[in-house]
Amino acid sequence: MSFSLIEKHGDHEEVVFLSNKEVGLKAIIAIHNTTLGPALGGTRMWNYANEEDALIDVLRLSKGMTYKAAAAGLNLGGGKAVIIGDPKKDKSEALFRAFGAFVNSLNGMYITAEDVGTTVKDMEYIFMETPFVTGIPKAFGGSGDPSPYTAHGVLMGIKASVKHKLKAESLAGVRVAVQGLGNVGSNLVDYLVAEKAEVMVSDIDKDKVKSISEKYGLKTYDPETVVTAECDVFAPCALGAVINDKTLPQLKCKIVAGGANNQLAESRHGEALRELGILYAPDFVINAGGLMNVFVELEGYSSERAIDKTTQVYDNIMEVFRISESENVTSELAAMKLAEKRIGGIGRLRAHHQGRMSRPFSTLKEMTRRQK
Ligand code: NAD
Predict the structure, then answer these.
(1) Distance, CA of 364 to CA of 345 (rounded, Å)
(2) pLDDT for residue 370 is more than 80
(3) N or C: lower Cβ tally within 10 Å for the chain?
(4) Which is the closest atom of ligand 1 to the Cα of 185?
(5) Is 252 one of the annotated active-site residues of the chain?
């Protein structure tokens, strides 16, 4: 059963099942593609209904990471891990250290990080067993909270979208509706206000809306009505699947560009946006700032370099729009083509040099050094 599922859900290089009865560990690591570098992706801890759901999730998420890293221009491959269990009840130091030992046994082919259900503390336990972990505390040479860097990348993506669609060089006076004022959304609002954009905000948490709107004197929207906001840019920074059959006819924006993952309920909604003349900045390209930030961690962390790196999102989004127009495809498909082209090109180069290209894995030396 598992083998047929693996074959059905993509062309993964390696899928590893981990089990340690003593500490109650049941986990799966999926390495989708390492053409560009070691497979990096977080560890999700979730109370999956069954093992099949966990496997499908890790296969899907690891493939997504391959595309994200490739489109971001990073020398990283795609991977992901899932731990089957309740993050509220089933965590222990021993469990994460056992998991860390398994990660270590892959010799750097897979590098882990935080994800839904795991925390910096869990990464600290993993770090006791392996250097192949990112998102560890700053005190250990880690990069800390990625959200400000994700938000900076989103700002760059909004700027590129505004330039492309509205032919405007600056965000001054551009109306942006931000949905979700969590870690990414609140940092994005700070950036947008500094750019003199006309910002509107919404969150299901009334306290967040109150404190941020009062701080800057911003217009607010109910969570139900924010998709209907008359604006230039709708910036989803909360949930996935926000662009769906119900919301599409209500949109009054010219651009959808925000930090949330999986904004399109289905790929066909990207096509629908295009038909409506609404420009869409693909989520996995515009929200890659957090991944860029951990990549900088692999090379020895500096916050300035991380911010510098995230400005690259501007060019990446511009390139996606260029491909979308020249090949007459949706921006989401264009982003996938951009990623595939890079993997294909470097893959051929790598095959030609028969493994003599060592650059992508040079980061591993850094990591080994850091742990000593
Ligand atoms: P978060 O949990 O800190 O913030 C999400 C916010 O959205 C919360 O304030 C929540 O109250 C609000 N919200 C939930 N439902 C809402 C609704 N219907 N309307 C309005 N607001 C609503 O999460 P985050 O870290 O800010 O991440 C936001 C999104 O960005 C997620 O989709 C996440 O997967 C994605 N993302 C985050 C990062 C990162 O660095 N944190 C990186 C890449 C992608």
Answers:
(1) 23
(2) no
(3) C
(4) 26
(5) no
Nearest CA, atom 33, ligand 1 = 260
CATH number of the structural domain 137-372 = 3.40.50.720
Question: For 302-321, how does the pLDDT look when each residue is reduced to its tens digit (9 = 90+)?
Answer: 999 999 999 999 999 999 99
Our mutation pick for probing the ligand 1 site, out of 61, 67, 203, 285, counting the most ligand atoms within 8 A of Cβ, is 203
Report the helix count and the strand count for the chain, using DSSP H and E: 14, 12
Q: In the Cβ-directed half-sphere of 214, how many Cα atoms lie within 13 Å?
A: 6
Range in 116-120, 289-293, 350-354 with the lowest mean pLDDT:
350-354
Q: How far is the CA of 195 from the centre of ligand 1 (A)?
A: 22
Q: Report the alpha-carbon distance of residue 190 to residue 186 in Å, rounded.
A: 7
pLDDT tens digits for 100-130? 999 999 999 999 999 999 999 999 999 999 9
CATH of 2-64+78-133, one of 3.40.50.10860, 3.40.47.10, 3.60.15.10, 3.40.50.300: 3.40.50.10860
Report the distance separating Cα 335 and Cα 283, nearest Å.
Answer: 10
The amino acid at residue 350 is: R
For 161-210, the DSSP string reads HHHHHH--S--TT-EEEEE--SHHHHHHHHHHHHTT-EEEEE-S-HHHHH
Strand boundaries in the chain, DSSP class E: 14-20, 25-33, 39-40, 43-46, 77-84, 110-111, 175-179, 198-202, 219-220, 233-236, 255-256, 279-280
With a Cβ cut-off of 6 Å, ligand 1 is lined by 146-147, 150, 179-185, 202-205, 208, 223, 237-240, 259-261, 287, 290
Q: What is the mean pLDDT of residues 143-162?
A: 95
User: What are the phi and psi torsion angles at 96 (to 5°)?
Assistant: -70, -30
Measured in residues, the chain has a length of 372
